[in-house]
Amino acid sequence: MNTDASGQGAASVAGHVADADQPVTGEAPRTLLQVRNLRTIFRHDHGSLTAVDGVSFDVRRGETLAIVGESGSGKSITAMSLLRLIPSPPGEIVDGEVEFDGRDLLELSDEEIRQIRGNEIAMIFQEPMTSLNPVLNIARQIGEPMEIHSRRDRDSIWKRCVDLLRQVRIPDPERRLKAYPHQFSGGMRQRAMIAMGLACEPKLIIADEPTTALDVTVQAQILELLKDLTRDHHSSMILITHDLGVVARYADRINVMYAGRIVERGTSDEIFNHPRHPYTLGLMESVPRLNDSDGTRLRPIPGQPPDLSNLPRGCPFHPRCRFAMDKCREAEPPLEQLSEEHWKACWVDLDDKH
Ligand code: ADP
Ligand code: MG
Q1: What band does 83 get if pLDDT is binned at 50, 70 and 90?
Q2: Ligand 2 centroid to 239 CA: how many Å?
Q3: What is the DSSP letter of 132?
Q4: From the CB of 74, is ligand 1 less than 6 Å away?
Q5: What is the distance between the alpha carbons of residues 93 and 96, in angstroms, rounded to a whole number?
């Protein structure tokens, strides 16, 4: 196993976090998913780029874990790697372990991983219109995974579909089940997608930018719904978003990603009240505030997200970092533990700068 110069894999398996993950006698282990040193590359004509570079994190039972970062930071490729949905070629998972409920997903046969997808792990994407089939009514689409994964008869599948639409708070479910996707609003389509995801009672829901295409009010409703549903079903959720503003209320812990790496991790409280990585600070400063009428403008992070096939030496964030020192241009900082729940990969001590 290659634990590289970034030290990300090594750093996060070490230390006392492991103790917190020990099962309590007689109970299921606290950790549902353990990702270790995940590395996914894309080959191109002139070489390759590393989209996910030694990423390690855990998802605990019942928690919502956010993955936050600008577009292109590797969030979706991380999620797709977990379920082995990377298009290959040009993509390839070249290293790592993904232990889900006691099994390494990267070691399963194609048939075994198909059983996990949509059954034990559900994925909800940003664009419901492209994931829903326009020529099938909603009942067929919500019912389909049940036809594949359970032995229910048609009548019981219909009843379950009605129940699922109720759970995602779609009014008049019997009538709505006969409708087609284009007859639904964007928010309703996303609710239907969530109902599909819930049909098999997954242990883990991966929601990749589930509300990005929706207006702000509907966004909040969908996130509330996801939070209620994961709580009611005792499932865990990985909530992926580029918008740090939306995760504060909905995530228990946050992983901040940059250039395919986790650069900061902490509880939502710590990340919001005491960010320790300049990139996290930059993301927070660039979140538009609702009460912006007073003229406080959002301040975008200067510069462009990095070109993954041509990363700078040292810390990949240093060209955009207002605190960068000589050391940042020389060596890549490892992900280091600051306190029980707080980690950062940065040479700068932000507390000195305030
Ligand atoms: P995001 O954080 O916006 O979800 P992604 O995980 O989709 O970012 O992508 C991370 C990086 O992986 C992109 O910046 C891109 O360089 C690379 N990448 C993603 N998909 C492909 C692909 N099909 N072919 C080549 N490179 C890709
Ligand atoms: Mg994405």
Answers
A1: very high
A2: 11
A3: S
A4: yes
A5: 8
Sheet with 91-100, edge to edge strand ranges: 47-60, 31-44, 91-100, 103-104
Assign domain 16-120+202-353 to its CATH superfamily: P-loop containing nucleotide triphosphate hydrolases (3.40.50.300)
In 3D space, the residue among 236, 284, 235 whose CA is nearest the CA of residue 256 turns out to be 284
C-alpha pair distances (Å), 148 with each of 114, 125, 141: 11, 21, 12
- What is the amino acid identity at position 49? L
Asked whether the beta carbons of 346 and 315 are under 8 A apart, the reply is yes
Residue nearest to atom 18 of ligand 1 (CA): 51
Give me the pLDDT at residue 8, please. 44
Asked if pLDDT for residue 154 goes beyond 80, the answer is yes
Q: Where are the domains of the chain?
A: 16-120+202-353, 131-199
* Nearest residue to 246 (alpha-carbon basis) of 281, 283, 275: 283
Quick: pLDDT tens for 282-296. 999 888 665 555 555
* Ligand 2 centroid, distance to 288 Cα (angstroms): 20
How far is Cα 80 from Cα 102, in angstroms, rounded to an integer? 19
**pLDDT, tens only, 269-318:** 999 999 999 999 999 988 866 555 555 557 889 999 999 999 999 999 99
Q: What is the pLDDT at residue 296?
A: 58
Distance, C-alpha 269 to centroid of its chain: 18
Q: How far is the CA of 208 from the centre of ligand 2 (A)?
A: 7
Residue of the nearest CA to atom 20 in ligand 1? 77
3-state secondary structure of 96: strand
